[in-house]
Records
---
Amino acid sequence: MVFFIKLRNKFDTVVTLCNVGASIYDIETVDKNNKCESILYTTKDSESFISERSYLGKTIGRTGGRISNSKFTLNGKEYTIPTNDPNGLHGGNGGLSYVEYKFKQSETKVFHEVVFTYLSTSEESKYPGDLKIYVTYRLYKEINRLTVNYKATTTEDTLVNISNHSYFNLSGNAKNNILDHYLYINSSKMERIEKLLPREIVDCSEIYSFKKSHRIGDYLMDKEIINNTNGYDFPYIFDKQSIDICNIILKDKESGRVLKIETSYPTVVVYTCNYVGNEIMNNNKKMEPYYAVCLECMFHPNTINSDFLDDKLDILRKNNTYDETIEYYFEVENE
């Protein structure tokens, strides 16, 4: 059964969650004129949200991003991910994005909380081990903050790299595209992408860097980017990794809305909604390119198959617990 759960705080921020994919269906915040509107690019109706396949607001995993050739070797055994994508996008056909989670809703003096749980069996995903997943959302009452925490345990060594795939558009009900949004990322290095897979770590050149905040559209249409990924679709490595550091800032100067992100993860994949869909979105139009930016905080995608990465952070050992957090702060500037 499908459920939608609404949370609201004193700032008139409304977060609507869904148990399908332990997902964020919508987030509404006020602009500089105190007008409350959606800051996500999401479907106009909830039924389409369940059936769409662009991972709108969904929990992505077991492995967010792509796994090259949909195969990996762990502890000497090769595994093949069932998938319609040649590179096992977001966990493949047995992924976490469109299954129904159980959930419990509660409240304290400090926050509203929803905890989603799901048991991903090795049979349904073909990853080793039965994986018990906990996705916890907290909307704070006195601070305009939404946090999402991912915990997981496994019966065997396996791969885990979970994130949220919300499509942000701060203009309000996606009335404009995101080319005029300003983006800052505390990152001097990124992963070079070739045929949609990371190949090596490189310094961020001018057309890729967001170390100094600038319009997303300033370089997006550069031939090098367009011919490669049709827009931004790159992992950025934070210069400093800490849950207490604001490593990402997204701004829409027209509305005054500001989104700040802190995370325990070491990278963020920036994806600018580079392709179209058939769904009618919350601006009453069909899905269009560059009407949103996804900021997918995670471990390096495809770490298990990347010879340029020594630390295989996406491996969850049998006796360990996966425990990572993303924090979203909602602000308004009246410049």
Note: The helical segments are 46-51, 122-125, 223-229.
---
Amino acid sequence: MKYKQSKKTIPGAFNHKLILPVIVFFMAHQLLNAQTVSAVTDRNKILIGEQVVLQLKAEDINTTKTLLDSWFTVFDSSNHIQIIKREPVDTVNINGQTTYLQKITLTSFDSGRWKLAPLKITFTDRVTGKQSSLQTDSVALEVIPVNVSVLKNYHDVKDILDVPVQTNYMLYAIITAVVIILAIISWLIIKRFKNKKPAAAKPVYKGTALEHAIQQIKELQQQNLSGKVNIKLFYTKLTTICRDYFEDQLQVRSSQATSDELMILLGVYLQDEKMRTAFYQLLRLSDAVKFAKYLPGEEQNKQAIDTAIASLTHVDGLVKQIKQHA
């Protein structure tokens, strides 16, 4: 006679199948808690028109596992607080952990107690693709009016005094002479340009923003600006076309951003590592040509054209997918 051994679950026994999920959850929880963000001003009380420095910081970011999608958004003017100066975003790497830091100079011309809403920053897990966000506390700023009564050099407004008016004939003569001279100059300018043929109208581009940008790049390539004399102008125009497209399509401040800031702004659209690296190399090459007087070869110039077109096409395709899903 054969006996079938029955499997019973012993109360309190540990299920080994739960080990992996628990470890993954614990590691993700520890990674999220390691990342901290802050928004702090060097003082919270100022006089009207005085300046205060706002420091934005994101600490302990593991860039090998976490991708920074978007930086804090601080508007030029918000709730009676204006931005005077923005410094670029600095990065510091300590023991594999990256800290991002930016300083913004603020002021206000309205007395009262004003607040900046909490600022948000977003990340993407490079392995799972899952997005997460962290936000700072709100920033309060008290603006105090100036008491001018205690100022030593302050002089109050006095009553208006009546002063006898004397006719200045010399002033009238000078004004008349200036008017006559301006009339003669205007007549000569009109006569000079009257018979001049009107300049040819600039071509009007039709189609999408991507088609317009690619058309501009091809026209730039046909102008043969990649010679040693015009190499700086060539790379300046090439990167300007790309920045104008990003600002028009993505609504980001790409024209004022540095190369590193622009890559942060485009992080969510250039997630492909090869595409992101190629475009960043194009920006670095352009900076080297403009500021370090570097002279690239003809093959590098052709590759720069191809990289610009491929990057714009990649971003445009992603924008269309986002609009379709929306």
Note: The chain has a mean pLDDT of 80.
---
Amino acid sequence: MLAHLPNAISFARIVLVFPTAWLLWNGSYVQALILMSIAGASDAIDGWLARRMNSVSELGAALDPVADKLLVAALFIIFTIQGHMPLWLALIVLGRDLIIFAGAVVYRILFGDIVLNPTVISKANTAVQIAALLLLLLSLCQFGVISDIAGELAEPYCFVLLALLGIGSGIDYVLTWGWQALRRSRG
């Protein structure tokens, strides 16, 4: 029973996307920040538990990035619609993920199994995505100086860094999979 706990936590994180998005949409920024913080903590906990309990599974390997991507996509879309985030940044972030997803589907169709090991630049991209979203959300919470500092860090610094990492990690995935496809077709 405990072996399934990491997967249950990942699934709960997926469920948290909906109330977090609803709170954000309705301007309940402090409550959305609390739920996003819970989701972030659960992301660390489920990975730690899976490794600690030696219960890493294919389901967990799929649920974890899905939970991350759903939360990030929902927040980017809502922040963009609300005018808190520039459209160009949301297009880079979401476009990168769509290109990676489409590439994975095409690769799977043409070559079979695909190994989706995140690269260092991809991990950095995800970390900056979460940091930028947290800073932006914190800036909207009206916590005085803390919110002011968070807003100054989010835009322009995190936004520019996120754009560069998004483009760089997208190119990295395309080149990596292209190289794998070339090796498989020759070998």
Note: Residues 125 and 165 are 5 Å apart (CA to CA).
---
Amino acid sequence: MEDALASVQAGADALGFIFAPSPRRVTLEKAQEIIQELPVNVERIGVFLNETGEQIRKTVMEVDLTGIQLHGNESASEVYSHLPEDCRNSLRIIKSIKVRDGFENDLDVAMATPGRVNAWLLDPGAGSGKTFDWKSARTQMGERKGRFILAGGLSPQNVGEALRIFEPWGVDVVSGVEREPGRKDHEKLKAFVMAVRKAEQER
């Protein structure tokens, strides 16, 4: 709760609630407890890894999320079909694409497949904490259009450069603002958001 509220105070637009196996994993009950204390304008994203559509449906019914982030081999269309009808079109679906040699081909295949994806998260590997070559990736993507979110190894020191080079729709940070796995460093949180806002103003 303390970390969530500190993130909001720092100016975060969205908070991620990790339901996948991880030192940062949170229970459904704890996630909902935290969400009840958040401002309504803060996005609340559930993070899943190779989870079944039925389990994601169960989570969505118990936790007041505004979006879901799929980090594994889940099919966005299949997940969408399992969502409760009353929130299917209001939940944002974010699909992770692993950045590697030829990743733009993976992205083409994923974007060409009929689905309900609202944004694409580009990551060198779920939970790797490593960056990728933003300039090379941007070049490889060419004229592809979409809502792209950068993840992987971002920190207060490098996020401004990442924004200037790649010009993503959003950025996703985890380890870069932690003092230990699962515990945020509140000063790093503030510095990260300040660096993002500064880069935005310079665009």
Note: The longest strand covers residues 92-98.
